[in-house]
Amino acid sequence: MKTKETFSLQIDAVFDIHSQGIIVTGRIETGKIKTGDLLKISGNNIELNTKCLKLQKYLRPITEAAAGEYIGITLSDVSKSQISRGMQLSSD
């Protein structure tokens, strides 16, 4: 039985884009991500649940990404003030 590698990304930057929402950027350390995945943000004694609404690579929309790629992720149900550089974004 093949086990799925957990998605993990260290947040490099956080943006609040008026027409899109909260976007975090970073390089995927392990695993894969696709639009609609449920995610967890942890660090600074905080743990938040969120969802991947959109993925971007070089300002172009994509539907999935894998380890080694530098991407932007639009997140739901979080605010810019809750997230900071260095926090970890991962799948459950």
Task: Please tell me about this protein's structure.
There is one protein chain. The protein has 92 residues and is mostly beta strands. Helices cover 0% and strands 60% of the residues. It starts with 7 loop residues before the first strand and ends with a strand.
Q: Any key phrases for this structure?
A:
60% strand; 92 residues; single chain; mainly beta; two-stranded antiparallel sheet
Shape: globular
Strand content: over 45%
Largest pleated sheet: 6 strands, antiparallel, barrel
Q: Unreliable stretches, pLDDT < 50, 5 or more residues?
A: none
Mean pLDDT value: 94
Q: What Rg is obtained from the alpha carbons, in whole angstroms? A: 12 Å
- Helical content band: under 10%
Number of distinct beta strands: 10
DSSP helical segment count: 0
List the secondary-structure elements in sequence, H or E: EEEEEEEEEE
Helix and strand content put the structural class at mainly beta
Span from first to last CA?
19 Å
Strand order of the biggest β-sheet: 1-3-9-6-5-10
